[in-house]
Amino acid sequence: DAGITQSPRHKVTETGTPVTLRCHQTENHRYMYWYRQDPGHGLRLIHYSYGVKDTDKGEVSDGYSVSRSKTEDFLLTLESATSSQTSVYFCAIRGQGDGYTFGSGTRLTVV
Amino acid sequence: KQEVTQIPAALSVPEGENLVLNCSFTDSAIYNLQWFRQDPGKGLTSLLLIQSSQREQTSGRLNASLDKSSGRSTLYIAASQPGDSATYLCAVNFGNEKLTFGTGTRLTIIP
User: Fold this and answer.
1) Looking at the complex, does the CB of residue B40 fall below 8 Å from at least one CB of chain A?
2) How many other CB atoms sit within 10 Å of the CB of residue B83?
3) Structure confidence by residue, pLDDT tens digits, B36-51
């Protein structure tokens, strides 16, 4: 399996503060993704990247931005966190055979 | 709109029984389909990946089938065990660079 790590694993932050989540991969895959998972909604795509500095929006991108300055790192930023952004965030890479591998997730609580 | 549906949302079966989980999708022009397992509070573990040109894939006690013409996939679990208890997610790549997920079936195996 591709090495994919997310940090932090848990975070509690206050409304209105900026937050950055990090996804790191070790196998040089081109495509990386950020999803959020919420009860009743399943996993929904926030943003994805198809190369360094190449990113695009998913279905729930409002309030989020991303950056990819190196192949191995994909950052998700909440510019001004809101309670509606309390969720579990998963990073994924698209690997061999175009199958996806997911990280362990970041549990974010906005209070 | 491209959608993925999993019914039922929850299923309980006695240990040792064979069972089938269902996944349906709205667009038959898929690229591939992937089944995942998620334990409570954990990330997603890939179980099986079926390419558009394939009819089924097998791994141990698991068998996944794909019928594009009817927009359906099934995940067959043989000789169920309590350790199989988890939420099973179906995800479809409709060829647009990202996965679309169903909301999952929560499986409980009763000892």
Assistant:
1) no
2) 9
3) 999 998 999 999 999 9
Q: Which of B44, B54, B90, B94 to mutate to test the interface with A (most CBs of A within 10 A)?
A: B44
pLDDT at residue A97, rounded to an integer? 78
Q: Which residues of A touch B36 (CB under 8 A)?
A: 102
* Residue A52 amino acid letter: V
Q: A82 to chain B nearest CA, in Å? A: 22
d(CA A106, CA A78): 13
Distance from CA of A53 to the nearest CA of B (A): 17
CB contact under 8 A, A42 and B103: yes
What rounded mean pLDDT belongs to chain B?
Answer: 95
